[in-house]
Amino acid sequence: MGCQVRYAFDSRRSIMAHRNDAMSQKQNSDRTSPNTILGFSRVKLPYEEVLMFQTVSRLLPEVSLILVTAVATHLVMSFAQTLMHYKLGHHPRGGKFFRNHINFHHTYYSKDHLVSRTYLGEEGNNTPFFFIPVFLVGGCAYFLLPLNLFVVMVIASAASFYAHVFFDKEYHVEGSRLQRFAWFRRQQELHFVHHRHANSNFGVIHFFWDKILGTYQRPDAGA
Fold first, then answer.
1. Would you say 94 and 113 are in contact if contact means Cβ atoms under 8 Å apart?
2. Which among 93, 86, 41 is positioned nearest to 203, based on CA atoms?
């Protein structure tokens, strides 16, 4: 009789031990589960939300890299435009680039005649000269960058190049639609400083490059 009682007690204790081990394993699993919040409670998320969370976690670094590539490309394009304008467009070493810029663009727009009804820029157009370094850098980037980032760089370069050409035209056209915006009028005045004082403000979109190069001049500096 005593043996039976002891056996029953040992069996009950063994069952309780197995149950405690199972509960401990479940708690540990809950703490490490992605559906557990701070290890205190298990919250079961719908499959669609879990899938969306995993997709966002996977795409976020890639999207960030794409944005960084696009912004960096635009800034490089902007700096290259400013530097070429400064070192080639206003220096005899620029050759035909220099002659076109001085004899046409700065002849059409200088001092008191800074705008016209239509943009005067077809004659002596320097646009093809900008394509030379763009194609050279693009060819090198094709072999160095992954294909997706190379495509981003090409699109950002094209958009940046178009923006520079677009804004330069809008600065010099009478009654531009952008005149309603204060930021555009500010940019236009900074650009006009360049046409009044050709040794300053070589940027078209970003004039902080001129601050770095030491060629920045405020619109009221010569007043």
1. no
2. 86
